[in-house]
Amino acid sequence: MMDKEQEKKFFQKQAELESEYFQHKKAYEQQQEELVMLDHKLDQLYYEIADATYQCLRQNDADPQPTHRSFPRLNGCMQA
Fold this sequence. Notes:
Layout: H1 4-62
């Protein structure tokens, strides 16, 4: 059986561990939210790149130009 001093230390340690747990849980949830936001940004970039690529390919098909040896399908698209 625990005496009052041991019981007090036990409950104090339990409170400290619970506090630490909830701090880690909150940090984890924030990291998860950040990952979701990054995933959304990556999706947006992917669709922007895909759209630009599609537009370049359509432009090249509609207006053929002399091809560049290294990138024959780009035909001058995205050139300055």
